[in-house]
Specification:
The chain is mainly beta. It has a single domain, classed as Nucleic acid-binding proteins (OB fold (Dihydrolipoamide Acetyltransferase, E2P)), CATH 2.40.50. It is about 5% helix and about 55% strand. It has a 5-stranded mixed beta barrel with strand order 1-3-4-6-5. The longest helix has 7 residues. The radius of gyration is 18 Å and the shape is globular. GO terms for molecular function: single-stranded DNA binding. Keywords: DNA-binding. This is Single-stranded DNA-binding protein. It holds the Pfam family SSB.
Length: about 140
């Protein structure tokens, strides 16, 4: 049994085409913007309350090769490691500058697979709103 484990599996739809980025040493990696949805039925209003979560997926090596031709709207499965990093950013003008520590989160993919489109992406929640293009991360 592992003492620590950091593995995440996501299934969802891409919000935009795969983005291929080159490093300074001309090595490439692929970035995906993946939307997952969850929701619940409000007991008071009997309406569905939905939430779309956007995930930044970064793939290197063979997973990047599998991801490079993916397009907006593709249904995909990703497995990988949840990673975060902190950085500081200054806000305000010269007189009132404030330093704020921010945190980025992304998934470093070890597996990327395009899945067959489900018969209905809204089958499990008929009241769900579709993911809009402007929502993409």
């Amino acid at each position: 049994m592992a003492l620590y484990e950091n593995e995440i599996t996501l299934k969802g739809f891409l919000g935009k085409d795969a983005e291929i980025i080159a490093t300074k040493t001309q090595k490439t990696f692929t970035v995906l913007s993946l939307a997952t949805k969850s929701g619940y039925k409000d007991k008071q209003t009997q309406q569905w309350v939905n939430r779309t979560e956007w995930h930044r997926i970064v793939a290197f090596g063979q997973p990047a090769d599998h991801a490079r031709n993916l397009k907006k709207g593709d249904y995909v499965q990703v497995k990988g490691e949840q990673c975060s990093n902190e950085y500081e950013k200054e806000f305000g003008d010269a007189k009132k500058k404030v330093k704020v520590t921010l945190r980025n989160s992304e998934v470093h993919a070890s597996f990327v697979k395009k899945l067959e489109q489900p018969a209905s992406s809204r089958a499990e929640n008929l009241d769900a709103q579709p993911v809009r293009e402007g929502d993409a991360a």
